[in-house]
Amino acid sequence: MPLTEEARKTPYRVALVSFPGIRAFDVSVITEVWGADRTDRGAPAFDLRRVATDTTTPIPMRGGLALHPNRTLSWLPRADLILIPGLDDHLTPAPGPVLEALRRAHARGTTIAALCGGAFTLAQAGLLDGRRAITHWNLVDLLRTHHPHITVVPDALFIEDDNIWTAAGTAAGIDLCLHLVRTAHGAEAAATIARSMVTAPFRTGTQAQFIEHPTPHTDRDADTLAAVREHALRHLHEPLTVADLAAHAGMSSRSFARHFTAATGTTPLRWLLDQRLAAAQKLLERTDLPIPEVARRAGFGSEVTMRQHFASRLATSPRAYRTAFSTGSATGGSSPIAR
Q: At what angle do helices 318-325 and 268-286 cross, to 10 degrees?
């Protein structure tokens, strides 16, 4: 749904749910993404609150760290987004009031996201029963064993089911956080935060979380795949196919697809579509180019094709996306996307 002007000016309210046993790393990731003021660089305004059962007791974390809550659970109805950090001991029971507050928040329709082992907290609340979820690859069997009513997806970075997001381990939590920013505020906002964090602004959630990298026979294979990806990004506006990319790499289509998936965790076709979507999002945010021209420059070929992919992958239309996320300084002039 497009944001109103009032919504653009209102800080996006984010709740970090805390209780003894949460991981310091995930708390740091959440704080880095939503707790820093980057409005001078064009990022949205965020209001991050550390929520616990009470505000008088510091929450101990591993390494001698402590988190000081500044809001009680009564603040959760005001939150636009609720975040659950992972756990040092993945079977740590969450306080009953926390679990009940999460159930009420989901019933209200609030977006809830768990990083890494935070999926176990959502599972304790019963929010993942009958739903798809992901966690760290090393915890998949544990989650299945203790919560058999969950459909545990073994191979993804992050997924969503009924407005509940779960993520794989460590770095995948960063990917999910940036994706949530992208979903709520657009690709440019996520890219601004990613640049500040010196991290990749875009990894699709369907990418494999654990890639068994075979020892390359030669450095040439890795260099060739990197060169092919760079070539594709420079020629997105052309009707590239997997066969085209394989030919550029000097490989058969089958061999190229196998090497590409092993190196990136995703198929060439899916990677190419992800890059086209990212390019279209940037053009819709940064320029006032007509929708058919955006489709052409991003390599979709037609507005109809681009609209179909926006609907299936982003649950919106290109026009609605522009309305929601245009920077307000769009021009039809210079653009980093190939013409």
A: 50
